Amino acid sequence: MYFLYTIIASLVSFFILRWLKKRRYCTDLKRLDGKTVLVTGGNSGIGKDTAVALAMRGARVIIACRDVEKAGKAVREIKFKSHSLNVFHMELDLANLQSVREFCKNFLQREKRLDILINNAGMPSVLDWTDDGFSMCFGVNHLGHFLLTNLLLPRLKECAPSRVVTLTCSNYKYQKLDFQDLNYNLLPFFTYCRSKLANIYFSQELARITEGKGVTSYAVHPGFVQSGWTAHFSFLFRMLMQVIMWMFFVSCETGAQTVVYCAVSEEAARNSGGYFVDCQPASLRPFARDAGVAKKLWEASERLVKLA
Questions:
Q1: pLDDT tens-digit profile of 15-44?
Q2: DSSP 263
Q3: DSSP string, 265-282
Q4: Cα-flanking dihedrals φ and ψ of residue 37, to 5°?
Q5: What residues have CB less than 8 Å from 227, skipping those under 6 apart?
Q6: Cα torsion for 144, 86, 111, 302, to the nearest 10°?
Q7: Do residues 266 and 218 lie in contact, with contact meaning Cβ atoms separated by under 8 Å?
Q8: Residue 91 phi/psi, 5° resolution?
Q9: d(CA 271, CA 232)
Q10: How far, in Å, are 64, 76, 168 from residue 31 at the CA level?
Q11: Active-site residues: which are they?
Q12: Which domains does the chain carry?
């Protein structure tokens, strides 16, 4: 009898876990032939699976990442999985604003089109500093992508209709921005939450300033994903998280579905500035919908990256 109860409990647990991990898939079959897509951090995790999905649709895909050796390996894997030879990589270090500027200069000289920009690369909850003296989370997750997007915005407008998809996280709800201390770098988790909130404000303000100009913007929470973000932490923490991720987190392929949805779906195109979860629009906490804060962050970011 004990054995029977154990079997029943195991089956119930199994189906509960499957239900918790159930997600929608992007069913839009839109082709991207002739389109150029740029994916930051496309050498691993959600970024790589996004690159595979968009390359399969016929897009010219460029992954931008810091490690050239890993990027080369990722390009080979993406080509193999997508059956496309139209995949390339360029070097980009989002923790160094000069690297961002050099990347954009090279990209604009080399590429005549940019139809979809996927701001995917990100740093987890770590306490470190960028080369420019910003907290690593805020500097990479927000400022690096802010500068990148602004420098590439003219090309996006030229290729309209075009899209910018920025990855964020539902953890944004646990913090608010402090404009007296945007460079906050004390508690790792709170630093990360603030950077993800900044991603949402950035996406909203980008949608506002590009309204009527052919560029649409989306913030995406991909879900909690089984990716390599734990590499920045101790061995014991990694082992613990491997068990938790296996039980509750979704695969990178599943996590990429909402990113792909926002990159191709006509339904998403009608919700520029929106926040998307599980291939559909989702609601935000009231403080994360504050247009005044979004505008203030944009202006502050312009000063920090020396665009203003």
A1: 444 444 456 778 888 999 999 999 999 999
A2: H
A3: -HHHHTTTTEEEETTEE-
A4: -120, 135
A5: 44, 45, 46, 252, 255
A6: -10
A7: no
A8: -80, 130
A9: 35
A10: 22, 22, 26
A11: 192
A12: 23-305 (3.40.50.720)
